[in-house]
Amino acid sequence: MISFECDYLTGAHPAILKRLMETNLAAESGYGEDEFSLSAKQKIAALCGTAPEQVFLLAGGTQTNQLVISTMLTHYEGVIAATTGHVESHEAGAIEFTGHKVLTVEEHDGKIRPEDLEAYMKTFTSDGNKDHMVQPGMVYISHPTEYGTLYGLQELKALRRICDEYGLYLYLDGARLGYGLASPDTDVSIRDIKDLTDVFYIGGTKCGALIGEALVFTKPENVPKYFFTSIKKHGDLLAKGRLVGIQFDVLFTDGLYSDICAHAMEMAVKLEKILKDKGLAIFRESPTNQKFVLLEDEVYERLSKDVKMSFWEKPDENHTAVRLATCWSTTEEDLKALEALL
Amino acid sequence: MISFECDYLTGAHPAILKRLMETNLAAESGYGEDEFSLSAKQKIAALCGTAPEQVFLLAGGTQTNQLVISTMLTHYEGVIAATTGHVESHEAGAIEFTGHKVLTVEEHDGKIRPEDLEAYMKTFTSDGNKDHMVQPGMVYISHPTEYGTLYGLQELKALRRICDEYGLYLYLDGARLGYGLASPDTDVSIRDIKDLTDVFYIGGTKCGALIGEALVFTKPENVPKYFFTSIKKHGDLLAKGRLVGIQFDVLFTDGLYSDICAHAMEMAVKLEKILKDKGLAIFRESPTNQKFVLLEDEVYERLSKDVKMSFWEKPDENHTAVRLATCWSTTEEDLKALEALL
Amino acid sequence: MISFECDYLTGAHPAILKRLMETNLAAESGYGEDEFSLSAKQKIAALCGTAPEQVFLLAGGTQTNQLVISTMLTHYEGVIAATTGHVESHEAGAIEFTGHKVLTVEEHDGKIRPEDLEAYMKTFTSDGNKDHMVQPGMVYISHPTEYGTLYGLQELKALRRICDEYGLYLYLDGARLGYGLASPDTDVSIRDIKDLTDVFYIGGTKCGALIGEALVFTKPENVPKYFFTSIKKHGDLLAKGRLVGIQFDVLFTDGLYSDICAHAMEMAVKLEKILKDKGLAIFRESPTNQKFVLLEDEVYERLSKDVKMSFWEKPDENHTAVRLATCWSTTEEDLKALEALL
Amino acid sequence: MISFECDYLTGAHPAILKRLMETNLAAESGYGEDEFSLSAKQKIAALCGTAPEQVFLLAGGTQTNQLVISTMLTHYEGVIAATTGHVESHEAGAIEFTGHKVLTVEEHDGKIRPEDLEAYMKTFTSDGNKDHMVQPGMVYISHPTEYGTLYGLQELKALRRICDEYGLYLYLDGARLGYGLASPDTDVSIRDIKDLTDVFYIGGTKCGALIGEALVFTKPENVPKYFFTSIKKHGDLLAKGRLVGIQFDVLFTDGLYSDICAHAMEMAVKLEKILKDKGLAIFRESPTNQKFVLLEDEVYERLSKDVKMSFWEKPDENHTAVRLATCWSTTEEDLKALEALL
Q: What sign does the CA torsion over A309, A313, A315, A317 have?
């Protein structure tokens, strides 16, 4: 059985486990005040061009989204997301749980188009009843999106301009950021993201770590006051914060994070080529590590015996759309095995 | 430098790391649906006498408290805790964040005395304005408590009786449960806890794991509906749930959890003897792995150069109360070194 | 200056004020336990075919929506509304404030079409990720809608059937219910509403009262436990509950509520005739007391000097859509004055 | 039957009803934008020495407490109250519902003693774990308190000084403020309150209105941003805001509010004299309109047949403590009737 089901189904990159072993007996302060976390924050800060105090290490993506949105927004504000945005669709109401409304803009390829955002804000600000409405305070985008697509640099700049005009924060959910940065089709660097957003996170869990997301506030003034206390209040503070610290310290030493994602992207490019060479229809174009392909049901059933894939949707009676994803642990052998099966 | 500062400052028991290595390449389902988590739940269920579906694996203690209290209570209910209860004092308002009030009863040695709980409920139920008040729905106790003390079996039975009389859930926070069960001074077994409470958790983070708490609902009907969805809603669902699953699977194989805590308790008994033999005053009596001792300030300062301890409080101008804790990684050498220093 | 701006801009029907005077010195229990409230509940219950214990008197509409939704839903559930539903668009996030998500279905004439609701639920229940999503628990409809339109009896029955199939509550917001019941174009009676919904409210504020909405749970088991305490918890319990009690007691004595709304509907029918006779384009068809008309900007400006109207929207450069509403205090003289001005 | 049960059991001062009649047909803007509300705000502002924009008219006391606390505090902050404070004990968790913890200080005569507040803050700020705790952000006091007692000017100044030192807001709940200001035993004026607090409200419901509380932010910068939207979000915005506006406009014209409370205080002084002359034991000393007296059970039972009183508590087997209150509608005849009965 080979698995292309998702990018969070195997353990961690071996270098992470090795480091966990080496450091196991060191007695370090709890709650993220350990040396490993500090070192990780310094490395991430250096890469992004911020101060270490602007970097926070958290456990998971929904948790990070919930924390960012509920601490940066004031209580009467909501967050604008695409209709397909993770915070709108698949977080079980984690944002509303904190009292904030998710305001939606129609998605296009999983993205918010700048013109749609601008139209939304023009309509809102000219509405005579706007004081009876949730005030937009932030724009949430994912990069790569839930469909594996990417914003171009010009799109990010346009979103930034609109956010500036209307006083909105721009937040980038980077659960799979590494794959976005490593995509051959991107013109966006991590420094661009730092320059154009107010806050973003670098996904660890889906990019080779056991758990962990590194949250970066791009300006010192964007760090919410008492953010440590808020992490605790959310039940998100790990006593052994070292667990996330060690992982990010390893990932951001000698470019490991980039290497992991470059490898996965190399596998993804080859995967897409195999799928196309086999004459399969691409269901959704994606320039990152998730590939969406349309299979005849008969093929889907046969293949499912040997290959783990994600069911995506059933567009018609005879076909099934599936998602295949690569990650740090995907090998050439996996690809060859898939190719042989197709 | 030797450390007795706390029980969550080193990594994990080596058997856990070994197993993380062995299982690293296995591609398993996410969100806790993996084989390791299932196996861990089965072992814990067998130990406690429940079904595996009554066991949930979570990341941390405050998170678990928040989830349990906010999903078992109805929105108009509150939870009764000792004034020193962790949910009242040191969770940054995590319970109130979910809309529930913590109702307090005066602590005695960190515990709720049955007579105080009964008096509280009698007063409440006879109050003519009780419909204008938060309805008590649960009693929260920690075992060991925040002071390292333990409930006796008769005390737990008395609390249970009162909870039954007034229709309250009884919830036991077992962040350090293993030390409580391994204490030479206890008459309470895990089966007693299963029989006498409605829900409790077995602490992993402070008992040899990297992260993780195992939550046990003692009756099938106590499991909140859609609990999985609630975990997600709280931002507490780990994509790689295997990380916690593997750890609890190891801890509950061949009695490792008991062994770890028995070792720590053996170290704690010796530690207490050393402290007493050296003529130091015990600041608070504790039958578990946390020892509270009173030091002259001069001794405290000298010792601090070589020994990490937790500052507890300053009861007078010339003395400092400190806490020393043992854990899985405490060694005879650590004890000897401390003895030599004293 | 004559006013057709809205139906809540003058005071109360004179019979209400008269009764406030008559009863002023009676010392009655607070918090809605007074004789007037009890009498009002009995009259409303008799009209609707429920027990008085299923009727609650509240102050305002958004407050009522917030209370109903947050007490009938469990914490992991959301409410389905049309995109134009008041709870979605114009309550400043009052529902999300309580932790519940508003799930949207595209509106048609301000209504949820049964086929759209059914499609929504089919998609939801077949979604492999539905445990990561907010669980639908209730359908919210307004009748009349925000556009003044009405559900037909067959539509209500179809919605009821779908709600039964999927285990959803059906909640009807009747802020302007009286006008809906008095409309010449309706085939829906209050008993139909009682039979087909789980909960609804009879609007007072917009139908001749100073404040007040009468909430009716259509089955005894639908009344949330500790609802009185929840009203207090929301800050919605009036010390002098008599103020609302007296008003509803008057409104539901000798059919005054029906008479008020019948009068307003008579005025509305005449108003629509005047508008059409003057050759004005109807912007939205509405069978109730709100009429939407399209004016040339020049006409709009001229008319605004003598007539208060609600600006609705600006569909093109030369026209303005406005809303005119009738209410208990609208007179034949108002209509004649408007006719003369047009 | 005569009633001394409470101060919110009869209707409104006749001048209020008269004005409701006179203004009934005026078509005025909704949501508090009417001329009556504006006029009321101007009069209250002039009295207090603020701008009208710092005055807001709301419906009830718990609602006002909830709004003030949840909009002035940041999400990680809590409010300090006496253990007997209304927000702590009798609001059914209205504050926690908004996510904020009530932090308690032991009451003395229903008040927070400055020395206790100072000790609380000293302990908090020196606690090594304070980042794991709810941050105090406001002090809540009631004046008169729930026991009818009053803060002296020096006490208020001392509280102010401590609040300044620790960066806390000082909020005064004036549900019965008029009686406090009219008490013969007070040295505190409304201007003192304006000078020494950050926000307070002038109670209407218990001082002669049907409903309504006038909230005053003592400095322009204390008004929470988008406060109007927050009122809506809480479900507290009245469509016919005129109802409260008219009442406060009447109450603050020609000193009616003072006159009403002076009358009630005159009655209260006489009431207390009657009670003492009859040899009854005062249960709690109160300088305002609530009098607490200890009755032999036999007397209590006999008196209850003719006099409505509030049961307060049962301090021993043979006695009952009751509360008698005066208000705008209390008459000399009521007093004489009571005297005759005793």
A: positive
Task: Collect all residues of chain C within an 8 Å Cβ-Cβ radius of residue A92.
Answer: 76, 131-134
Read off the pLDDT band of A24 (50, 70, 90).
Answer: very high
Distance CA(A248)–CA(A254), nearest Å, equals: 12
Whether pLDDT at B1 is above 90: no
* Interchain CB distance below 8 Å, C96 and A92: no
Of C76, C225, C233, the CB nearest to B226: C76
DSSP lists the bridge partners of residue D294 as D281, D321
Q: Which residues pair with A313 in a beta bridge?
A: A321
Q: How far is CA D107 from CA D87, D145, D149, D159, D188, in A?
A: 13, 10, 12, 14, 20
Beta carbons of C133 and C80 less than 8 angstroms apart: no
Mark out chain D residues that contact chain A at CB-CB < 8 A: 70-71, 74-76, 99, 131-133, 135, 225-226, 228-230, 232-233
- Say yes or no for a CB contact (<8 Å) between C237 and D210: no
Task: Tell me the C-alpha distance between B193 and B202, whole Å.
Answer: 11
Q: Are the C-beta atoms of residues B118 and B161 closer than 8 Å to each other?
A: no
Nearest-angstrom CA–CA distance, A97 and C97: 8
Instruction: Note the residue count of chain C.
Output: 342
CA angle A139, A141, A145 (to 5 degrees): 165
Residues of chain D contacting residue B90, judged by C-beta atoms under 8 Å apart:
129, 132-133
Tell me the per-residue pLDDT of C139-161, one tens digit each, with 9 for 90 and over: 999 999 999 999 999 999 999 99
Count CB atoms within 10 A of the CB of residue C257: 29
CA distance D227 to A76: 9
Residue A330: CB atoms within 10 A of its CB come to 24
The 10s digit of each residue's pLDDT in A112-156 is 999 999 999 999 999 999 999 999 999 999 999 999 999 999 999
Write the ipTM. 0.97
Q: Which of B89, B99, B129 sits opposite D96 (nearest CB)?
A: B99
Are C230 and B75 an interchain contact pair (Cβ–Cβ within 8 Å)?
A: yes
Single out the residue of D212, D250, D224 nearest to residue D15, CA to CA: D250
**Whole-number Å distance between alpha carbons of A299 and C246:** 72
Burial D10-47, CB ≥16 within 10 A → b, else e: bbbbebbbebbbebbebbbbbbbebebbbbbbebbbeb
The shortest CB-CB distance from A29 to any of B9, B91, B211 is to B9
Residue C47 and residue B210: Cα distance in Å, rounded? Answer: 64
Domains of chain A: 2-7+256-341 (3.90.1150.10), 16-251 (3.40.640.10)
CA dihedral A62, A63, A65, A68 (to 10 degrees): 180
User: pTM score > 0.95 for this model?
Assistant: yes
Residues of B in contact with C234 (CB under 8 A): none
